[in-house]
TrEMBL record:
Record protein name field: Androgen-induced gene 1 protein-like
Parts forming coiled coils: none
Organism of this sequence: Cherax quadricarinatus
UniProt xrefs under Pfam families: Far-17a_AIG1
Catalysed conversion reaction: 13-(9Z-hexadecenoyloxy)-octadecanoate + H2O = 13-hydroxy-octadecanoate + (9Z)-hexadecenoate + H(+); 12-octadecanoyloxy-octadecanoate + H2O = 12-hydroxyoctadecanoate + octadecanoate + H(+); 12-(9Z-hexadecenoyloxy)-octadecanoate + H2O = 12-hydroxyoctadecanoate + (9Z)-hexadecenoate + H(+); 12-(9Z-octadecenoyloxy)-octadecanoate + H2O = 12-hydroxyoctadecanoate + (9Z)-octadecenoate + H(+)
Cellular localization per UniProt: Endomembrane system
Length: 237
């Protein structure tokens, strides 16, 4: 049975997949430009968090489609399929917090000074619709998913481990690029000194953890806490 959630998953998967395809094969900077050299040098597109997040979002919503047809959507923990367990783990610990983080940080810096994150010179060849798929659709898609589908959350500190690991892996990656490639991935790091970069990167950890926490709170507000779910099941039985 095809539900609204299934249609939503399919549409979001197609949007992210097409965004990745277009960015790889058609979104080409002017030949010989500084932007072309920067995008194609050390790390390629994989040095950008937005590109990594698009891969994550695309893979997640593709997994959701598979689960809708071949997995389960039960609200009973013991009846979960392996696909549903993977879907819930990815969404609650990585997809939601990272999707909201990418959108929040990008548009916050864009509003403050767009030259620090997305220079105006990019407007000549970088389509605005692709910019929104990269930086707006993640927060829209994940919040829509939050309201349409029930997800199981891990308990305690285990919920925060994946985002912490992902954060420090990416932090190590961009620092390695700066060391080995001699470039900073984002212009904002070029205007900061060592102390400023350290404080800025350390401060970015807080919203990552906050969005995991807020995601769980929002989910419980929409669907009820685990205790409330248990009471509802007891009444039905």
């Amino acid at each position: 049975m095809i539900t609204c959630a299934t249609l939503s998953h399919a549409v979001l998967f197609i949007f992210f997949l097409y965004g990745l395809y277009y960015d790889e094969y058609h979104n080409i900077p002017p030949a010989g430009s500084k932007t072309e050299q920067f995008r194609n040098n050390f790390g390629g597109r994989f040095k950008y968090l937005t590109h990594l997040d698009m891969l994550l979002q695309c893979g997640f919503f593709g997994l959701c489609v598979l689960n809708d047809f071949f997995g389960s959507n039960t609200m009973t923990l013991s009846r979960q399929s392996s696909l549903q367990k993977l879907r819930d783990w990815l969404f609650t610990s990585l997809v939601f917090p990272m999707g909201v983080f990418v959108s929040f940080i990008f548009w916050a810096l864009y509003a403050f000074d767009r030259e620090l994150i997305f220079p105006a010179s990019l407007d000549e060849w970088f389509p605005s619709w692709l910019n929104h798929i990269m930086h707006t659709l993640p927060v829209i898609g994940t919040i829509l998913e939050m309201y349409m589908v029930y997800h199981f959350y891990l308990k305690g500190w285990k919920l925060y481990v994946p985002i912490l690991v992902a954060y420090f892996l990416y932090l190590s990656w961009i620092c390695y690029i700066a060391y080995a490639g001699g470039i900073w991935v984002y212009p904002v790091f070029e205007v900061l000194d060592f102390t400023g970069r350290t404080l800025f990167l350390a401060a970015l950890l807080l919203p990552n953890l906050l969005f995991v926490f807020l995601g769980q709170k929002l989910h419980h507000r929409v669907w009820g806490s685990p205790k409330e779910q248990t009471k509802r099941k007891g009444k039905k039985e």
